[in-house]
Amino acid sequence: MVSNRLNKCISQVYNLSRKNKNETILIWIFLDSNRINSYKKFINLIPSSRKIGIIFRSKEIVKEYCRAKELLKICRKKKFTFLISSSYIIAKSIGADGVHYPNAYRYCRKDKKILITCSCHGFKDVKRIKQLHANVVFISSIFLTNSDINKKEIGIIKISFLANYIKTQYSVLGGVRESNIKLLRNRGINSISGLDFIFDIIKYKC
Description:
It is a single chain. This protein is α/β, with parallel strands linked by helices. The chain has helices spanning 2-14, 39-45, 65-78, 88-94, 126-132, 156-163, 196-202, and strands spanning 27-30, 52-56, 81-85, 98-101, 115-120, 136-140, 169-173, 191-194. The protein has an 8-stranded parallel barrel with strand order 1-2-3-4-5-6-7-8, surrounded by 5 helices. The radius of gyration is 16 Å and the shape is globular.
């Protein structure tokens, strides 16, 4: 059963490291239009859980107000945390839970009322993370990924070194699957991110 399989995955992620009260999201899902035909149908296939976060990305996010609002409504019913990528204005206007800032963003409006997340591709991003006042950092790619076969993986060993410089919660993104979650134990990883593992769980085909 899909919900049982998802709960097992959530349990595995919870056991990766010690948790505190602020670490509520264990699985982050980055929506990708190249791999998902319908965001609405895809989100509805995922069992409800307060441990799941959805990040809405779009190349033209400023034109996506209506769709963002529609997806937020679905996520509220599913009890998912919902973040908008690259637009503080849209996130605030629709009442999203936070904003995700990809690599191109180095500064943002400080707002303690919402969740701020950002990407990290190596040591060069440590200063940027501090400038963005990020609550959660997504380190990628941890493994080889299907979304970008040309992207070089950081690997598990470098994660431990990066952790010494990132003074906030961090998640790993890229190529994470049910079969390799155990490899991430005892490295301070707070959550996992991506699409491959959730595709496997809900049996979604691109």
